[in-house]
Amino acid sequence: QLHLQESGPGLVKPSETLSLTCTVSGDSITSSSYNWDWIRQPPGKGLEWIGSIHYTGSTYYNPSLKSRVTMSINTSKNQFSLRLTSVTAADTAVYYCARIKWGVVVAIVTPRFLDFWGRGSLVTVSS
Amino acid sequence: QSVLTQPPSVSGAPGQRLTISCAGSSSNIGAGYDVHWYQQLPGTAPKLLIYDNNNRPSGVPDRFSGSKSGTSASLAITGLQADDEADYYCQSYDSSLSGVLFGGGTKLTVL
Fold this sequence. Notes:
The structure holds 2 protein chains of 2 kinds. Chain A is mainly β. Chain A has strands spanning 3-7, 11-12, 18-25, 34-41, 48-53, 59-61, 69-74, 79-84, 93-105, 108-117, 121-125. Chain A is globular, with a radius of gyration of 14 Å. Chain B has strands spanning 9-12, 18-23, 36-40, 47-50, 64-69, 72-77, 86-94, 99-102, 106-110. The termini of chain B are far apart.
């Protein structure tokens, strides 16, 4: 059974950089049919997709966050990471890592569904 | 427009059938991209409930079903139970966003 676990600081100061790591166990992060995603959920609000990374290093980011987001992957450790710069209180959220299935839909390869999720990590932005 | 619209809340009595709608547009559902549904119980991570419009992962009861038509999709729940109380999210791919798009979520209350 696949297991994902987020780790990182629970408190980040405004204007600083949020860094989280997701450790994957139970399967290799190098599966070609899957990407590895970050999703966040502000307290009491809905889900927001942050971005996606393939084990080859290809990345896809939400345009609304693209200027501040960097995702990376470490296949030797079976981990992938998120960096979000210049954070404000609006970035306070539970951050989830998840695996996403990719496949051909409407004749192009696209992300499809998120089948395994981590338990989430609350990050609060406050001085 | 990159938006999936869900009703903020729905409610029903135990045993009833209810549906949750997810309205999209020509850049997501209407373009032919599949719709997926997630259930988020209070204080927990979302869980995949329906994938590719109408498929259930192993372990999901057949009381849950999905459908898609045109630019919209629906999640149906039959035989409503108290432990179905949760937030439900639809999700698709959006070509304008070039990424994953979630609906705003629907809070289901069992009366």
